[in-house]
Amino acid sequence: MSSQQFGVLLISGRLTHQENYALNLRDDPRCTLVGLSDEKDVPPERAQLNKQFAEDLDIPYWPDLDEALAREDVHVVSICADPERRGRIAARCADAGKHIYVDKPMTPYLSHADDAVAAVERAGVRSQMFSSNHQPWVNQALQVVESGELGELTAIHVDNLFAKGPNGTAVLGAPRRAVYPPVISNFVDAKAELYAIGVYALGFVCMISGRAVETVFGSTANYFFEAHQRRNMEDFGFLSLTLEGGLTATITGGRIGWASHPAGGSNQIHLIGAKGSLFLSANRPTLEIYNADPPWTPPEIHPRDPMGFWRTTQEEVRGQPKRTLAPLSNALEGRSDASYFIDCIVEERESGMNARQAASLTEILLAGYKSAAQGQVVKMPLARDGDHAQGTQA
Amino acid sequence: MYDWTVLNQTVSETLAGDAVGAPLFVRWTAAAALSTPELKPLLAEMSAYAESWLSARPRRIYATGSSDAGHLSLALEYANGQSALLAISLAHDHPSMNLVILGARGAIYQTGSQVTARAGSLAGGADEKRQHAAVSSTSQMVAVIDKSLFSKQPVSLSPSGDQP
User: Which ranges carry the Gfo/Idh/MocA-like oxidoreductase N-terminal domain (chain A) (predicted)?
Assistant: First the structure.
C-alpha cells in the first residue's frame, strides 16, 4: 500500500446509503474508489442497482465478492448491503484483512455482531459504523460534559426524528402490538425506524456518557405511515435507559413526515448535570428565512422510494431542500464521517464507533424491542440464545 | 416570562384547532425545579398536562432517575397508543425547557428559557375546583412514580388512572 493512500471497495450501490458514503470517500484525497462488488447470489434487481452505481461512478463492477476481496489494491471496504447481510459481510471483509466502514446499524443479529467484532479484532483491522457522532454540535455536547461545566452528568435526552415521508396515513387509536424478535429489513416503503434512526441517538448517549447501558425500557408505535403499519414495523420508538453510575438517558428515533419540521428533523440533545443543564440542536443557532418564494412542498412520491430514503431517487423527483432554517456552520467543521475513519486508519487508533461499539448498539436496540414486546425492563447484556431479530432476505 | 398554565392554554388551543392532527407523542424536558422536593410534584404536573393534550389516560408508566441526583424521567404509554417522555431537573437559577408534540400531520416545538414552571399554581390554572382536582391527580401520580422508582419496573394503571 502506498503511503497514506487507500483503495476503497464499495459493497452495494444504488438505493443504499452507499450513494452518500461513496461520494464522501471519493472526496477524501487519501482514497481512490477501485470498484464495486457484492455477494454473488444477490437478487437480479440488486445486481442491476449495483451495476448502475458502478457506472455512475465510472468504476468496475465485480460480481464476486471473494474475488474483489482478494485484490491487493483494496484496503478499505464500504459496506452498505441490506441490513440482514451487512454483519456477515463485515466479518468476511475483516477476515480478508480489509478495514471496514459499515452502514448503520451494523447488523440486526447478535451472532453476526459478535462475529464481526471477533473478525475485526482477530485481523487487527480498523472498523467504523457510520454515525452522526462527529458532527460539530454533537462534539460540542461531548466537550461541555468533559469540561465539567455542568457538574457530574446525571441524564441525557436525545431526539433523532427525521422529517421525511408522507405522514398522516396510519390508522390510529390503539397501542402497537410489538413483536419480538422484531422485523428488521429494508422494504421499499418502510424500515424499522427505532432501529434505523434511533441508533444515531443511542450513539450520542454512549459516546457522551462513556458508560455502559445496564437496563432498557422501550416502546414502539405506528403513528404516521400506513406502510410501516402494514409491514408490522414501527415508525417511531423510544428507549428509557439506566447506565453505569446511576446515569439515566432517554432517546427517541423515528420518521415523522415531511411537513413536521422546518428542516430535516428534530435532532437534539438535552444534557442534565449536577450544576446545570444544556440544550443543543443540530438546527441551532440558525437563521430563519422568509421570503416571497412559493412555500416548500414535499417531493412527488417516487414509486421506488416513497419515503425519500435515497439521494438518487429524490433527485429524480426533483425533491428540493427546505430553506426556512439555515443553521450556522463553520465550513472548517464539515469533516465527513468517512474522513474521520480514514484518520483513524492513518493514525492507527480505534474509532469511537468501531465494530465493538456498533455491536453494543445493536444489542441495546434489540433489548428495546424485547422490552416493548414484553412490557418489562430488560437487563443487559442479552442472552446469546438466539438472534433476537427476524429479517426477510438473509 | 410565562408559566406552564399559559403554555398549556396555548398548546391546548393549538391542538383544538387541529393544527397538527391527532396528538400522538409528547417530549417535554424541563429544568424547572427550585429544589429537590419539587421534582416529583412537577413531574406529576407535567404528566397531567400531557394527559390533557393527548386526551388519554396513561396505561403504563416507567420512572428513572432520583430526586437526590436532581433529575427524574418518566415514560408513559397511553390507552389509545400515544406515548410521552417527560423529564424534570433542577433549574440551577437558569430555568429552561424543550417541548415537542408530534401529531399525525404535524408537530409543535417550543424551546427556551422564557417559560417557567409556575408561581404557586398547579395544572388547571386559578380555578379552585379544577386546582383541587389537579392536586389530587398529582398526588396519585407522585405515588405511582415512587412505586416505579422503588421497583425499578414499569407500573400498569387501570383505565381510571389508579394502580390495579
Answer: 21-128
Question: Could you give the ipTM of this predicted complex?
Answer: 0.95
Same domain, A143 and A103: no
Same domain for A167 and A77? no
CB contacts under 8 A, A 139-158 vs B, are: 154-155, 157
| Interchain proximity B152–A168, CB inside 8 Å | no
Residues on chain B bordering chain A, Cβ-to-Cβ distance under 8 angstroms:
20-22, 24-25, 27, 29, 31, 59-60, 62, 64-66, 69-71, 73, 75, 77, 79-81, 83, 85, 87, 89, 92, 94, 96, 98, 100, 102-107, 109, 111, 152-154, 156
pLDDT digits (tens, 9 = 90+) for B8-29: 999 999 999 999 999 999 999 9
CA dihedral A136, A139, A143, A145 (to 10 degrees): 130
Mutate to test the interface with B, among A171, A223, A322 (most CBs of B within 10 A): A223
Helices (H), chain A: 18-27, 44-57, 65-69, 83-95, 110-123, 136-147, 193-196, 198-209, 226-230, 311-316, 337-346, 355-374
Which top CATH class is B2-152?
alpha beta
Domain match, A342 and A325 both: no
Read off the pLDDT of each residue in A31-47 and give the average, rounded to a whole number. Answer: 98
Q: Any idea what the CATH number is for the domain that residue A94 is in? A: 3.40.50.720
